[in-house]
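3.2 Worked example (two chains)
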Amino acid sequence: MRATGIEHKGHWQGAIAGRAVLPHDQRAVRRKLITLDNGLDVLVDLPETTALDTGDALKLEDGRFAEIVAAKEPLYAITGRSVGHLAELVWHIGNRHLPCQIETKSGTPQRLFIGRDHVIKEMLEGLGAAVTEVSAPFSPLRGAYAGHAHGHAHHHG
């Protein structure tokens, strides 16, 4: 079965052929074989690399959809002493180019989520963060160039 298009969350409806439960690092696709939760193999064949989020769907050649679901991953949940402290922690995470998800409440950052790495954990704890191991779906922020797939044969400015 081939997937020839993407429909974003809230913009698709129809018969579901199955669900693709994928970790964040497997949700950027162009040409890739994905096995759905029911065993159906789907060849994703898109004109360009596309990042998928939970609730998006691959449009299959037979008119059905394969729903995208973020897989649970081993993560660290990180909290700071204040919003300002959390901003400092985000800076250190970003400075290391690590994928990071920011959980907010009423628009205010509350917690950060990153993939587990004991060296980073020690650094964050050394900066005063509370770091807890969790298993949860991971949807990190996309960088400024996320929609601009390219090598680095040119300069950014």
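3.2.1 Second chain
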Amino acid sequence: MELKNLMEEEVLRVVEKLLKERDDICTCDRCKMDIAAVTLNNIKPKYVVTEKGALFARVDSLSYQFDTDITVEAAKAIKKVGENPNHE
């Protein structure tokens, strides 16, 4: 068994999508991970232990509001990290 926060996958997916639409933000791995970390710190985690649990949580994650909430927080994180990048 493995403990997993499903939000990590969803946040990384949304961050990648949003960054493809922007050419004014650094897309190095460090900045992407910083954006994901800020986003994850501002949304509720969804932990699962079993594959069955993962399946039910993934079905729930398909809602429009769920995707919108992640997108809003990721956009805020992109702005924050873009204004203060943590790399050389």
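3.3 Remarks
The CA atoms of residues 3 and 49 lie 5 Å apart.
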